Structure to design on (228 residues):
């Protein structure tokens, strides 16, 4: 059986038209694709521009340095001008003193001022340190010799074999006499009383001096008691 082809179904006649339509569709699709890529690129660019953060401007505050105050203005120099005037020139407003004595002028006698001498007040202060110490006649060697010759060893101290030093204190008065002898440390056996007896019997000393003036001085003296 022979197949018969419908002349309307023959596509060969419209092949060129379909080819043109296909080319137009492809060209349109390409244009649409290019437009989409360009729009995406624009959007990406805009997004990137918005994402950039601007750097904050840092303002550094500087403290103003205080300037030193200006120096005070210098005082103008004052110069004194001396005008030398000859003896013949007449000076106005000159003060003239009349040295002539009038009969009615009374002589005024000025009595000299008498200064009463202050009575020397006896000093009662007792010094412990002075410029010139009081001294026994002949010095310290003479003092120890005097003590050795005049001390009588107490029998009670001798019987009990008591030896040692008795410390006494006394005041050398302004005239060199001895006053207020006292025992500072005693060893017993009557040694302290014997030391006081010998000190009271001492001759006058050379008094101590302060600023060249005799004063009362406190003096401490050790008296040695030893058995031989």
């Amino acid at each position: 059986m022979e197949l018969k082809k419908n002349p309307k179904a023959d596509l060969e006649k419209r092949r060129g038209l379909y080819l043109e339509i296909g080319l137009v569709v492809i060209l349109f699709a390409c244009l649409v694709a290019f437009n989409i890529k360009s729009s995406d690129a624009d959007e990406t660019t805009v997004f990137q521009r918005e994402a950039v953060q601007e750097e904050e401007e840092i303002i550094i505050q500087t403290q103003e340095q205080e300037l030193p105050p200006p120096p005070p203005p210098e005082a103008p120099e004052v110069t004194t001008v001396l005008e030398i005037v000859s003896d013949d020139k007449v000076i106005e407003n000159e003060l003239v003193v009349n040295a002539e004595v009038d009969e009615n002028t009374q002589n005024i006698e000025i009595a000299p001022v008498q200064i009463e001498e202050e009575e020397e007040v006896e000093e009662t202060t007792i010094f412990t340190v002075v410029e010139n110490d009081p001294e026994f006649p002949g010095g310290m060697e003479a003092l120890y010799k005097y003590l050795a010759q005049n001390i009588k060893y107490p029998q009670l101290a001798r019987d009990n074999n008591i030896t040692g030093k008795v410390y006494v204190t006394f005041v050398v008065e302004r005239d060199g006499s001895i006053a207020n002898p006292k025992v500072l440390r005693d060893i017993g056996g009557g040694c302290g009383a014997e030391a006081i007896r010998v000190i009271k019997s001492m001759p006058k000393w050379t008094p101590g001096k302060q600023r060249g003036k005799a004063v009362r001085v406190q003096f401490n003296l050790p008296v040695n008691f030893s058995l031989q």
